[in-house]
Amino acid sequence: MPQLNIDTVSPHSRPGLARGVSHAECGACIFKPRCLPAELDGESLDHFQRSVLRQARPLKAGQVLAHQGDNMDALYFLRVGSLKGVINEANGDEHVVGFRFPGSVIGLAEPEEQRWARTFVALEDTWLCRIPLASIDDALRRQLVKLMSERLRQEYAYHLTLAFKSGARKLAAFFMEISDGFRARGLSAQRFHLPMSYIEVASYLGMRHESVSRTLTQLQDSGLLVKQGKFIQIPDLDQFRQLTQE
Amino acid sequence: MPQLNIDTVSPHSRPGLARGVSHAECGACIFKPRCLPAELDGESLDHFQRSVLRQARPLKAGQVLAHQGDNMDALYFLRVGSLKGVINEANGDEHVVGFRFPGSVIGLAEPEEQRWARTFVALEDTWLCRIPLASIDDALRRQLVKLMSERLRQEYAYHLTLAFKSGARKLAAFFMEISDGFRARGLSAQRFHLPMSYIEVASYLGMRHESVSRTLTQLQDSGLLVKQGKFIQIPDLDQFRQLTQE
DNA sequence: CGCTCCCTTGACGACTTTCAATGATCGTGG
DNA sequence: CCACGATCATTGAAAGTCGTCAAGGGAGCG
Predict the structure, then answer these.
(1) Least enclosed by CB within 10 Å: which of A63, A244, B64, B134?
(2) Does the beta carbon of A90 lie under 8 angstroms from any beta carbon of chain B?
(3) What is the pLDDT of residues A124-177, one digit of tens each?
């Protein structure tokens, strides 16, 4: 089990650039109101920056941030890259239950002092900041409650997505989730990078990857969506969103 | 761990009995460690009991606790009864995104000072305690973080349920969710009351109510499950749980 | 007693999964 | 730099499941 070595973390390690992601994109998020240090002020913000944000640790594509069942002693703040959260079932099946993009805090679903309920795997080269549980004071906790509320709200939206019967609606809702997320982070909502495979998308949505491929081809043929390698472009967002409402 | 004394709860706000639910069943939950006041001590526990637990409010079946979009100024602690959470879509469709049973805190997904993202409707006669947001101090907030983590963890499990393709697996997972929840509250995991209609179950699971009915009939014919009106009995829990892993 | 809402069952059709095979892409190592 | 292997994406055809539409029966409530 690859336990990451904190000692190797350089205090001045600056995140490099993941392919296709500019530094402006990755750096912007941590100053957004929705991100963790937003409500910290003066001294505590300074302390937070020194103790947490400087300690970015890199993860290569496919590497594991934390294994399901591992002891948990820190949250992680995702600065660059992306992760998938997977649950391993007793019969060996693996299910993707979430994707994380820059600006996310990883580990909110794990009660303090407990274990990771899921495995988090990097989908591409990824940089994270470690937030030791011991460093969480009341100011940070106040912020955490907000973040968790937001995440819970998201999960309810995902529930809606999954409850859709048609594959086209599921996929449309999935893309709108991602698009909205990128917009909230100040990135483009019309054209974005998909770091995950169709197999992972299919697992996330309760479909088969063949169905994902077929449905996307249909959407492309109807002109509502353009596939360009790992990038997705949506010419008309309003029109596309109507797909989620049948 | 400080325990709540039921005698300190106002006698005149004593919960009545929902149909088919004994008082032993409904009252047990608030003594469980997982419930809100578990980690409060001394003065704050006393304050909590006086300011919150005494203010139980009744709700009749079908009545609405809070409307989607309404301003939110309190959380609610569910003591007796059950609720469904629904999201109304722009096109008029209504989706059930959750059920709540005694011991739950309602409103965790709403950022403070914000609005209700969902509508909560009583499925039967229900009693709730109001927890004004203004009364949430750091001690309570610490407790909230735990509850929200737990809820997030649950939502990931629901994701798994919804991602199952077969209706039988979805329903089996749904019943195991409920069964596990009742066991955690000290109630029977083998035989329990279903306060919601098949239509609501179907909406929650992304199925049609006809499919729910058919699948349940099949499960009953195979002897894995017994329907008795609004009650569900599962003779062999281990065997039944295997259904969720195909 | 009437009504309304819920549950059940049947037959048909549409959609997704399944199985299979081929092609594309990427990372690795020679 | 190229070749190789592995993973991923695409497409076809067949089979199965679930949704849809329709109708009848039952339970609860005013």
Answers:
(1) B134
(2) yes
(3) 999 998 888 888 888 888 888 889 999 999 999 999 999 998 999 999 999 999
